[in-house]
Records
---
Amino acid sequence: MQLANYKDIIIIGGGAAGFFAAINIAKENPERSVTILERGKEGLQKVKISGGGRCNVTHAEFMPSELVLNYPRGEKELLGPFHSFMTGDTIAWFEERGVDLKIEEDGRMFPVSNSSQTIIDCFISEAKMYNVEVLYNHSVKTLDARATDFIVQTSQGELTCNKLVIATGSNPKIWKILNDLGHTIVPPVPSLFTFDIKDKRIKDIPGVVAKNVEVKVLGTDLVSEGPLLITHVGMSAPAILKLSAFGAVEFADLNYNFKIEINFIKQDTESCLNHIKALKYTLAKKSVIKSAQFDLPKRLWKQLVLAAGISNSERWADINKQQLEGLADQLTKAVFNVTGKSTFKEEFVTAGGVDLKEVNFKTFESKRIPNLYFAGEVINVDAVTGGFNFQNAWTGAYIVSQSITKT
Ligand SMILES: Cc1cc2nc3c(=O)[nH]c(=O)nc-3n(C[C@H](O)[C@H](O)[C@H](O)COP(=O)(O)OP(=O)(O)OC[C@H]3O[C@@H](n4cnc5c(N)ncnc54)[C@H](O)[C@@H]3O)c2cc1C
């Protein structure tokens, strides 16, 4: 006879990965008890606020070798797992449960309802259907790994289980516990943030978007491309967010103080110079400020022209060599000082977590402690924005469910 506080499988964390693992385990193993321990009075809180309340569930990228390129940490390790469960499987999984996803122009995928509540409702009803026990207000305080089982001490008492899944996201207390159990924890740093920049050129033009720029971080090899958005405090959008993810560790080391060089038109300085030199003749009588080139937004063009020392009233015919060169520099290698970071509200994650060397990526089981599994952000995997972070949670959780089912 089993004791009342004995559970077959415990999942710590009632977030994205925790629910996904629990549902899949319970479906395949009706004879085993599956229990989620969630510290909050509700679970799935990040799912709720994700993607601006719409939940960017995954991304329409169907090649594992391409998909992994979106993971600054986890690129190598996720290749195998994505061959087992990736975006197409995620779409099918939700579709089978009546949740249709749609693809937006940039590849992000959302529920057709445009509401994260659809995902939450799906998880809650699936968990109920497969008899997953969800214990809310159960914060895990300590873990003891014994030869044949685990003792889990929660705020509401002690539980014992045979298999343990850690799906606690970026929770420092659980990392500390795992560290005490012998796991290496890569120190956490923020990823996916916007850059704070105080600069005359962008001060008065929040909301302006340059469609396709190149951003280099001076003194490093970091470079990215894509749309750039001027905000009230600096710069955002994929060109910046990708950098913030790939440079997360370096930027933390630099205390978020560094210089970036932006090529607003993705042309070399010389061809840009040739283009604008010709305008001295073709647009001779036109005001420089009023004749935006290279498909740049008019307000951004104006600021770059002023920064090149060309005044409001000057016409193309009036400007000298130095001003032309100054403008070419502003357009192709404008340097900005980054002085801090701000939260990107649509999605932010933490780099760091359980060292990937200590996880078996065929099973997502710990290499240190048998019968201990990980899913989601608790391991040192994180991605750029676009639905890739959830895809990591679904993939890891699914593979955990398959591994546990086989044992
Ligand atoms: C504002 C915001 C928006 C986002 N939007 C997107 C998006 O649209 N698309 C995308 O791909 N990613 C998005 N992300 C990232 C995504 O939410 C995470 O990568 C994902 O939630 C990780 O899932 P997880 O299950 O590992 O962790 P979480 O979802 O964080 O779940 C962990 C759970 O564990 C519980 N827990 C922690 N410690 C304990 C404990 N000691 N005892 C018991 N329970 C505990 C927590 O309460 C929580 O419920 C967003 C993140 C944020 C912050």
---
Amino acid sequence: MQQQNQYLKKVYVQTWGCQMNVADTERMLAHLGTCNYKPTDEVNEADFILLNTCHIREKARHKLVSRLGELKPLKEKNPDVILAIAGCVAQAESEALAKEVPFVDMIIGPDQIEQLPSLLEEVVRKHEASKGIVDSFHNSFSPFVLTKFDGKEKGYSIPIDVVPPFYDEIKNEVSRYVNIIKGCNNFCTFCVVPYTRGREKSRLQEEILQEVNHLVSKGVKEIILLGQNVNSYGLDLIGATDIHSSGGKMPFSDLLYEVSNVQGVERIRFTTSNPHDFTPTLAKAFEDLPKVTNSFHLAVQSGSDRILDRMNRQYTRNEYLERVGWIRKVRPQIAFSTDIIVGFPGESQQDFEDTLSLVEEMKYAFIYAFKYSIRKGTPATRFHDQVPEEIKDKRLQLLLDVQKKETLKQNLAEIGSVREVLILYKNRKEEDSWYGRTNEGRLVKVQTSMPCIGFTLSVKIEDANLIALVGRVCQ
Ligand code: SF4
């Protein structure tokens, strides 16, 4: 109990977007923990409100604007509440955003997270200074904006000694993301990431292994290596511009071997991989390392070479299938998943059918599919042959229907089998019921009366639906 009261203040965080943003939120909470802020789920009781934003689709930006509209009255009522915008919208629109929402206190980019404590001090000083100013809400200072990239030539570091205040709760966590690389050098014509996250920069291998060892000591069993483009991990550290100029070296594969050697690590997954940046070395790692799970997320985006070229994906349909072939040769049971964009500018009916036929040929376990969305500042915005929304809607629905059939077929085919399931968390809705994942990444609801979080159990699959398998622990 003594521990709790040391926290003077409360912080409410809302995070949108990808796992990189989720990982950044934890880093920010870690830093705020050193300033005596503790997380709260109640926005009305927060002293600090932090919105960690996503810029990947127009809808994401709309969510931010409407959320700020909801929070403005709260800030008007109590100008001392600190309101901050972080993440990719902050990075992409910094000064413009400051003009658009002057009642916000700080706008901080992903590369400036380590500056959060000092920026917080400045804001608190600003608030003190504006005390006594009549109607300080409208008359106080404009937001602090800190969005420059860290400007380092190569590499980046995430201090792991800044321990999040809730680290003790990690004890219950079985699977954790570990950031290994940030940014991207690929410049796909639809993507904002290279503009909001900068150039690829990798963490040193020893720092990553230090964090993995720390997490394992806390009971974590599954490590998920994270980055916008993990295949390019370490290329900046060896001075290579891309995998094709690294003299056949693939530092990412080397990292997989090292993480696999850490005692206590039971499973390794990674996301996200770009097909352009991998060599047969990665297939060798899948062959040699049983801890690397039988699930692989390999983003394809389209099945049409013409569209892949317009997206600047730097591979063709056949090159994608060739790389899939390298992995399937050593792991025939592997479950692939992917990302697909429908309605990219200029996408003809034939291009879309190429995507459908690729999905049918690949037999993915599941897919993330989205309608193309114009992103300010990206080259595809200037493409004149934009696809009408209603055609995008139709294509997306058709694609999802095709995939749902395949996912259900694969899940139903699991009935009667016995699978090794890593139990991740308790099912809050049912007694003696837990959720875990097979080595292929399939979600399983497991019936057993024994507490089993963190254990890998042999489970007889008795039923299945589109979302999950259902099974009972083998006696
Ligand atoms: S590889 Fe991924 S993160 Fe990089 S530009 Fe392309 S879509 Fe964006």
